[in-house]
Amino acid sequence: MTEFPQSFRVTLNDVDEERPLNSEMVVTALERREEADYFGGRRVGLYAAFKMALRAGGQPTSFGLSRLEGEPHWVIDDKFGANGFPHFCHGFGSRVTIPRTVREEIAEVLDNLARSSGLAAEIGADIPLILA
């Protein structure tokens, strides 16, 4: 079983035109999750939570993400500022609004962690999730 939190260095190349942003990404959770949806079905997939500063010297923003079976991308379910201000909060796997996906650099960290944790049989950029 994978222990959390885990820290990763992530470089975001086009945040600032002058230089890339090197930030610490602290993954606090990655797990398989299954919940009922609003229409009598089930949402099955992966849930991930992490904190990361989005600008140099900034305080970390908290994110909750999901990737449902068959989906090719991680979707942001909730985002909270460093002071706890809710930018938005949709709940695990909600797809009733336009999905916001994460950057490739962040998705790659989560994909690798899901694979190494034995949670995903197939996962990657533009590869539909198949749970292990």
SSE diagram, text form:
Blueprint: E1 6-12, E2 21-36, E3 42-53, E4 60-68, E5 75-80, E6 86-89, H1 104-116, E7 120-124, E8 127-131
Antiparallel strand pairs: 1-2, 2-3, 3-4, 4-5, 5-6, 7-8
From the spread of the alpha carbons, the general shape counts as: globular
Oligomeric status: single chain
Proportion of beta-strand residues: over 45%
Q: Kindly give the count of domains.
A: 1
Estimated structural class: mainly beta
Order of helices and strands: EEEEEEHEE
Radius of gyration: 15 Å
- Kindly state the percentage of residues in helix: under 10%
Largest sheet: 6 strands, antiparallel
Distance between the termini: 14 Å
Q: Point out poorly predicted stretches.
A: none
Name the average pLDDT.
Answer: 91
Q: How many beta strands in the DSSP annotation? A: 8
Total helix count?
1
Which strand order spans the largest sheet, edge to edge or round the barrel? 1-2-3-4-5-6
Describe this structure in words.
- With 132 residues, the chain is mainly β.
- The protein has one domain.
- Helices cover 10% and strands 48% of the residues.
- The chain has 1 helix and 8 strands.
- It has one helix at 104-116, and strands at 6-12, 21-36, 42-53, 60-68, 75-80, 86-89, 120-124, 127-131.
- The chain has a 6-stranded antiparallel sheet with strand order 1-2-3-4-5-6, with helices on one face. It has a two-stranded antiparallel ribbon with strand order 7-8.
- The two termini are 14 Å apart.
- The mean pLDDT is 91.
